[in-house]
Structures are given as structure tokens and as C-alpha cells.
Design a protein that fits this description.
The structure holds two protein chains of two kinds.
Chain A lengths: L1 E5 L2 E2 L2 E2 L1 H17 L3 E6 L4 H9 L4 E5 L9 H14 L2 E7 L2 H13 L3 E6 L11 E6 L4 E7 L4 E5 L14 E4 L11 E8 L11 E5 L10 H10 L2 E4 L1 H5 L20 E5 L5 H7 L4 E6 L12 E4 L2 H16 L1
Parallel strand pairs in A: 1-4, 1-6, 4-5, 5-11, 6-10, 7-10, 13-14, 13-15, 15-16, 16-17
Antiparallel strand pairs in A: 2-3, 8-9
Helix pairs in contact in A: 3-4, 5-8
Chain B lengths: L1 E5 L2 E3 L7 E2 L4 E2 L6 E3 L1 H14 L5 E8 L4 H10 L3 E6 L5 H13 L5 E5 L10 H9 L3 E10 L3 E8 L2 E8 L2 E5 L11 H7 L4 E5 L7 E7 L8 E2 L6 H10 L4
Parallel strand pairs in B: 1-6, 1-8, 6-7, 7-13, 8-12, 9-12
Antiparallel strand pairs in B: 2-5, 3-4, 9-10, 10-11
Helix pairs in contact in B: 2-5, 3-4
The complex binds flavin-adenine dinucleotide.
């Protein structure tokens, strides 16, 4: 038995969430007393593939074919399941990213495996049970889920586990599975990716603003603060509904759920649906002119004040801090 | 054109989440149940695509009879008919299997569901149904256009989007942007009472996963207030105390 981890890449580079998945999978492999194989699909160079060894993979299967250049979940699932069979892996790990969410369920069905998506901790294996804690009720609770099947699939939430280096070297092996044409009926026509922006689900730091900002032209200071911090920007639902910010920035129960190390909420009241998506952030800062705003109840740090006065002060202080 | 839309019955978004039976069961007492908000988006798009006699929309739910009001709501919004697979939805694998088994009997051109259910947040059903039926599944879409044979979908990816085209049957899970959620009209509510709601027995399948316990997040300590005039101090605290920057 062994553990297999699928590591996502974009433009030939692995994502941070991918290294987290490898670190997490390594810890599981250690717990099971077995070794870890990683699989990469797409065109990734050898030095980048070698990186996976640093996080604990002892072997890397490199699938590099033009047919599989773009992510098609149906085909990728078949390849990963074939790799699992070849490696005799009974546990498959991947990231709970947008792509991972389309991939993990297909892998689970092929392997007749139970799936935990949105795992936030390492599995527990007491009393012969294999349980994993995951987010549930949009961040309002956790569900400890037991996987009762022989094979198991776990999709790890970004920024839940961190990366852990473990001195090691990975051997790289080219893997060329046969791809069925029926697995390639969905065709990727176009990929649009803003490379200059930090992607929200992966971000460690997030600056978010709400209706308290009053108008879209006031986001300049929010972006400046985010840039200085190296943070991603987010917003509340009414802000994206009004078209002030793109929908991809909308966090909360009906938007994206995130768990960054730092979430700064500016001019956001803290409605239950908003909190649902952000309450698992490690540190929460709230800036609001209303001392009674519900958001202060779940904050670690608070500033009661006018955003238009407070944010420029923070920008000044950050510039000074950075020297 | 025939479209199948998956409808999940979930607690209202304002629900305070509590558990009973030693934290093994979600406490449904006093909880208002609604159509999963994302499923409402999927349903609304399905209705738009079928407008003007271009097709029919069937709503499907896996649930016991307590979910009937939610199914009637879907009919009131505009689904033509509905099916309830009579079983408590154990987990996504079970639910997806039931939907796939039903879909096999109906020759649907497309199946739509919401990006995830807001209770268990499993974004699993769409891709599982796709795998059970061996058809493409496109998860978390923001846009869906259809021209008789080919669908063009925009899928969300980290920091951007991907445009995907599919010819033939497929399943997609819908997020915001696909459609404005429709609100039932008075006429819709009246006609929903007489539309067909078929009840079908579930098909057994081996269990692969189960929730053994729920936990609620640990409460945070008291908030540390920084006076607005001393806002700069916050940067110091985040650096030296919280150690996040
Ligand atoms: C089904 C459903 C799903 C929902 N899903 C989501 C979701 O996913 N995400 C989400 O965010 N919301 C969601 N909502 C909406 C949610 O209920 C709130 O309406 C929304 O979060 C409020 O956004 P806000 O805090 O930006 O605006 P408001 O509630 O209007 O709050 C603005 C805040 O700004 C403060 N403020 C005003 N001026 C200033 C100033 N100059 N300086 C500092 N502070 C100032 C005010 O004191 C106030 O607290 C959902 C609602 C429903 C019904």
C-alpha cells in the first residue's frame, strides 16, 4: 500500500497549495508506514519536478503529453486512477482547489472510495477508524467524517496545513498512460488568468472591503494596502452584486470560503452569511465606524473608526515599517 | 431539450448551527429549510434555456417526504415536473448514485446542479454523477450558453477563468453569474400544487463515508481594540504579536 498525491501546476509551476498537499500526504504516508508518490500532469520541467522531493515525495510520476496539456477533469481522473493502480496506492490526496473539486469526486467514484473534501487536519486512525475533519455548514462547523471504504480520497483545503520540508530526493519517472478519446469530449477553448494578482483561495493575507466604502472609486486605498502587504483583495456580497468589484472576490456563504492567516475587514458589518466564509481565518482585523458592528465579536483586533481616515494611516505605517 | 436539475434541501443561511445526540446530529428543530441557493441559480438557468417551448425542466431531490415543500418551491419557480428519490441523503456518493440511476431512465441533454450545498459544502455531486454516467462534468461554472448541440461554459479557476466547450450530454455545477435566481410568481405557486411530483425508491449502494461527529469552531478571545488615532500600532501588533506580517 502507498499514498499518491496529485500536484496541480499552472504554466509549468506547482502551486503553493500543491506543496501543501505533498507535505500533508507525506505526513499521512509516515503515519501509515509507507512511501509517497507524487503525480504531475502537464508540461513541467525536471528541476520543478525535483522540488516535490523536498516536501516528501520519494517518486514523481511525470505525465507530459500534448493531449493532457490543459486540465480536463475526466481525463485527469483516469490518469490519476491508473497511477494509483500502478503504485498500489489506497490513499489519494489532492488540493481542494477549483480544479480539485471537479477531479476528486471522479477519482472517488472510479476507486469506489469515500471522499473527504475540504479537509482541515490530518486523519485520525484510532480504534481502527479512519476519520478526517472537514469544514461544514459554510465554516459554521466541522464534520468529522469516517471513510469506511478500502480506498480513500482526501482533498485538502488551501492554507489549512502549511508546507513542511523533509530532507529527501525524488526519482522522476515518465508515465505515459493511454488516454481515451471519450475522456476528452470537454474542450478547453481559452484560459484567462490574471498573473499579476494573488489568487484569493490561495492567499495567506486578505484585505476585504464592504459597503462601508460607499463607491467603487474608493477601492484605490484598499488595493494599495493589499499591494503593500502582498495580500489578495476580497469583498462582501452587496459590493460584487452592485458590480463595484468582480464576483470572484465575493467571500462568504454564497461566495468563496477562505482561511487566510490574516483577514482584514474594512467597512463590512459582519452578517452571518459573510462570517460563514471567513471565520476560519487565523487572525481577523475589523475596521468599522460602528462600535456595535457584529464583526467585532469575532475579531482578534479591532479599530473603531472611519475607514477613510484609518486606512491611509495603515498605509503610512506599513511604508514606514517596510522602510 | 430535456434538463434535469438537482435540488438540495438546506437550512436557511441565517440558521444558527447546533447539534444534538452528543454532537452526532444536526439539530433541525426550529430550522427553516430552503432550496440550496446555488441550486436556485442552476434551476433559473435551466428555465431560461427552455423558455418559449424549447424544452422541459425536471427537478430531482434525494430526500424523505419532509423535503416536499422545497421541491414544491422549485416547481413554483418554474420546473415542469419533479422527482423525489425517497431516501435520507447519507452522503454525496449515495446522493450522486441515486441521481445518476434516475438520469439513466430519462435521456436528459444536460444535468445542472449548484456548485455546492451550503450544509455539508460537498462540491462532489456533479462530478460524481458525471463519473457514474461517464459524461463530462464541469464544476463551478459562472456562465452557460447552449446552441442546440454545443454548450459553452465558463469555469472558475484560481485568479481567472477557463472557457470550456462540450458537445453532447454533460453535467455542470453552477455558481453566481450563471443566472439571476428567479422568484416564484403567484401563478407559479398556484400551478406548483398540481404539477407532477413522482416518488421513486432509492437503489442500495455500499457505504463509503459517514459523519461520526460535528464540532463547532473554538470561540475567539476578546477583541483587542486599537484606538483609531493610533492605527499605526496595528501594524506593529500584526508583526510582533500576531506574527502574520
Ligand atoms: C442567502 C443569502 C446569502 C448571502 N451570502 C453572502 C455572502 O456570501 N457574503 C456576504 O458578504 N454577504 C452575504 N449575504 C448578505 C449579508 O446578509 C449582508 O447583507 C452583507 O454581508 C452585508 O455587506 P456589508 O457588510 O458590506 O454591508 P453593510 O451590512 O451595509 O455594512 C456596511 C458596514 O460598513 C460600516 N461603515 C460604513 N461607513 C464606514 C466608514 N466610513 N468607515 C468604516 N466603516 C464604515 C457600517 O458601520 C457597516 O457595519 C447573503 C445574504 C443572503 C440572504
Amino acid at each position: 500500500m502507498s499514498v499518491l498525491v496529485y500536484v496541480e501546476q499552472a504554466d509549468g509551476k506547482f502551486k503553493k497549495s500543491g506543496f501543501e498537499a505533498v507535505s500533508y500526504a507525506k505526513a499521512i504516508a509516515d503515519g501509515q508506514g509507507t512511501h509517497l508518490t507524487a503525480i504531475s500532469i502537464g508540461n513541467v520541467g525536471d528541476s520543478e519536478l525535483k522540488e516535490l522531493g523536498k516536501y516528501g515525495a520519494s517518486k514523481v510520476l511525470n505525465v507530459s503529453s500534448d493531449q493532457l496539456k490543459n486540465f480536463v477533469n475526466q481525463a485527469y481522473a483516469s490518469v490519476i486512477v491508473e497511477a494509483a493502480a500502478k503504485e498500489n496506492a489506497d490513499i489519494v490526496i489532492l488540493s481542494n482547489s477549483f480544479s480539485g473539486k471537479g477531479l476528486a469526486p471522479r477519482i472517488a467514484v472510479k476507486l469506489k472510495a469515500g471522499l473527504v473534501d475540504g479537509a482541515v487536519e490530518l486523519p485520525q486512525t484510532t480504534d481502527g477508524k479512519f476519520t478526517v475533519k472537514k469544514n461544514a455548514f459554510s465554516g459554521k462547523a466541522f464534520a468529522v467524517t469516517e471513510l469506511t471504504s478500502v480506498n480513500k480520497v482526501i482533498a485538502l483545503n488551501p492554507n489549512a496545513f502549511g508546507t513542511k520540508e523533509s530532507a529527501g530526493d525524488a526519482t522522476i519517472e515518465n508515465f505515459t498512460p493511454e488516454v481515451k478519446t471519450t475522456d476528452l469530449t470537454a474542450i478547453v477553448k481559452e484560459i484567462v488568468r490574471a498573473t499579476d494578482k494573488i489568487s484569493l483561495p490561495d492567499a495567506e493575507l486578505v484585505v476585504s472591503a464592504g459597503r462601508g466604502l460607499k463607491a467603487p472609486e474608493n477601492w484605490g486605498m484598499i488595493e494599495e494596502l493589499a499591494n503593500l502587504l502582498g495580500a489578495a483583495t476580497a469583498c462582501s456580497k452587496p459590493v460584487s452584486d452592485a458590480g463595484w468589484r468582480p464576483h470572484s472576490e465575493h467571500v462568504g456563504q454564497t461566495g468563496i470560503a477562505i482561511s487566510p492567516n490574516l483577514y482584514i475587514a474594512i467597512g463590512i458589518s459582519g452578517a452571518i452569511q459573510h462570517l460563514a466564509g471567513v471565520s476560519s481565518s487565523k487572525v481577523i482585523v475589523v475596521i468599522n465606524k460602528d462600535p456595535e458592528a457584529p464583526f467585532f465579536k469575532v475579531a482578534d483586533y479591532g479599530i473603531v473608526g472611519d475607514a477613510f481616515e484609518v486606512v491611509p494611516k495603515l498605509i503610512e505605517a506599513l511604508k514606514a515599517h517596510k522602510g | 431539450m430535456k434538463i434535469l436539475v438537482c435540488i438540495s434541501n438546506v437550512p436557511d443561511t441565517t440558521t444558527k448551527i447546533t447539534f444534538t445526540n452528543d454532537n452526532t446530529q444536526f439539530n433541525t428543530s426550529g430550522v427553516q429549510f430552503i432550496v440550496n441557493p446555488y441550486d436556485e441559480i442552476a434551476l433559473s438557468r435551466a428555465i431560461e434555456l427552455c423558455e418559449g417551448g424549447k424544452g422541459t425542466v425536471t427537478a430531482i431531490n434525494v430526500g424523505d417526504s419532509s423535503t416536499d415543500p422545497t421541491i414544491r418551491k422549485a416547481l413554483a419557480i418554474g420546473a415542469d415536473d419533479a422527482v423525489r428519490i425517497n431516501a435520507v441523503p447519507r452522503d454525496a456518493y449515495f446522493t450522486a448514485y441515486q441521481i445518476a440511476e434516475y438520469a439513466k431512465t430519462g435521456d436528459f441533454d444536460m444535468i445542472l446542479c449548484g456548485r455546492e450545498s451550503i450544509d455539508y459544502n460537498g462540491a462532489q455531486v456533479a462530478a460524481m454523477v458525471g463519473e457514474f454516467l461517464d459524461i463530462p462534468s464541469i464544476s463551478i461554472i459562472k456562465k452557460l450558453d447552449y446552441d442546440e448541440t454545443t454548450a459553452t461554459l465558463e469555469r472558475e479557476i484560481e485568479g481567472g477563468k477557463e472557457v470550456v466547450s462540450v458537445t453532447g450530454k454533460f453535467i455542470a455545477s453552477c455558481a453566481e453569474g450563471v443566472a439571476e435566481p428567479k422568484i416564484p410568481t403567484m401563478r407559479g405557486i398556484m400551478s406548483a400544487r398540481t404539477k407532477s411530483l413522482q416518488v421513486v425508491e432509492a437503489v442500495e449502494i455500499a457505504e463509503v463515508a459517514k459523519v461520526v461527529k460535528f464540532e463547532t469552531p473554538a470561540p475567539r478571545g476578546a477583541v483587542k481594540q486599537v484606538p483609531a488615532e493610533e492605527a499605526a500600532k496595528l501594524i506593529d501588533l500584526l508583526h510582533t504579536e500576531a506574527k502574520v506580517i
